[in-house]
Please model this.
Amino acid sequence: MKVSIVGGGPGGLYFALLAQKAWPRWDITVYERNRPDDTFGFGVVFSDQTLDTFKAYDGPSYEMIRRRFAYWGDVDVVYKGRTMRSGGNGFCGCSRVALLHILHDRCRELGVKLKFQHEVEDLNEFSDSDLVVIADGINSKLREKDKQHFQPSVDLRPNKFTWLGSTRPLDAFKYFFRETPEGIILAHCYQYEEGRSTWVIETDEATWKNFGFDKMGEGEMLPVLERVFAAELEGHPLVANRSIWRNFPTIVNQTWVMGKAVLVGDAKATAHFSIGSGTKLAMEDAIALYEALKKEGEVKRALATYDTARREEVEKTQHAANVSLAWFEHMQRYWGMAPEQFAFGVMSRSKQITWENLELRDPRFIHEIHKWFAQQVKAQGFDGEGRKRGLDLSVRDDERRARVAGKRVRPAQGLGQSKPRGEAGACEPCRHVGKERPLAAEEMGHAGDLEPKPVIAVGVQGGAIAARRPAGEVEKGVFILFGRGRQGEKMGADGAGIGEAEAGEETFAETCRIDRSEQESALLGADNG
Ligand SMILES: Cc1cc2nc3c(=O)[nH]c(=O)nc-3n(C[C@H](O)[C@H](O)[C@H](O)COP(=O)(O)OP(=O)(O)OC[C@H]3O[C@@H](n4cnc5c(N)ncnc54)[C@H](O)[C@@H]3O)c2cc1C
Model:
């Protein structure tokens, strides 16, 4: 079997390694246009979970990565002079060039042929190959040549970013937020090896233009950014490496397969760097393609299996990345928030990490948020425990833990207790079960008497859309959304998904799941008009 792989990035190399290890007699060649030491960028990030996957698939390369990486558990949100630290987030950073060298060495050891400085122009070069893996990255020339077939769509996001490095050591993943006369600018930073850290700088287009970055080359922008982040850099320089300002493209392809050719990695789909998953996705694509070949035993069926079986996971990651990037695109909107609320917003922005996850990871961080939240609630006439005129928003600890562990629980029915998701009409004695029309404020009797300002609106639903109110009516208030789904999704018939409260938009609220933690999550994630 002859296999040709276009692109010697993490996706192409990891597939070559796994396939050669499993099928030593296969003739596998990787074609890479650059030299072995050329690389753009600085470091990449893997979670503990991703490292476990690598360990399971190839112990030797995992061990080599493990020996080189920098590890951290803390994430710092540095905002308006306060540092909010959240612990228990296991991640490692690794230099991209070190990762590629590890994969080169392992490929050579197993017998993969690596051809550098070979730019592939056309798939016709591989007419005698049985399988062609297209892993030529985000701007894939080969995908674009056959775009009629793959039908890629590219959503160019509005924020500007540039990928830089520094010699500044860091003891945690740091988000440095800065307000400047030009606008808000942010650095996403982490150490990837001793004395080396990645600094991805992100800002909106107006701020970028106000700084004049649109007219500056690499050499001119570095001193400007060094001045902006002077306190954070602590005297260390920023380092550039083909660090042009870009807009992130979210890429989706209708199909990943064309005959015996298959897309892998960024060529196939991209996920925004703010969830640090591009390299992980590319290497997991390689694993999925390898698994499909192992299962099906022949190319055509294997590629069809890869295209269907892998899609859900990729789309889930892309969804999380899109929700995360949208948070950064709206930084301005959150700028008035207290540091506690802001930090919670940053940590939970992709809606993959919840209040409960964060509490399990670092109770101290959540305690700080809780304290702040209790003060806000008290200031609005509630007691510190979230009760107002007989409304009990508490949830039993065992129920909360069960939900974190993904189990469904059926608590006793009634006000102040949760009902399992999707069980329409199960919430007795709720008066509003199953209603599919706008709820008037007075109908939301469970919330107690609603005050004109601030408004705390509690909707009640019984499986379908139950509370639907134009946000304009409550734009001056605090609008609490209760929900089980992801922010940004419309509520489905099973009650999954909540809408974001935005002026002028309809807002959906799911409740009957009245509990303190969800109330807090929702309030902290929502706009505080
Ligand atoms: C600012 C920024 C920060 C990021 N941070 C992270 C992070 O922290 N963690 C993370 O996991 N990911 C991160 N990523 C994403 C990550 O870099 C990519 O998602 C990942 O490298 C994708 O791997 P790949 O193998 O698909 O493609 P690539 O790594 O892009 O490799 C493609 C290779 O193909 C070669 N090539 C292209 N065309 C041809 C051709 N015609 N012929 C021969 N060779 C060709 C290229 O030279 C390249 O070596 C970040 C990306 C950006 C932009």
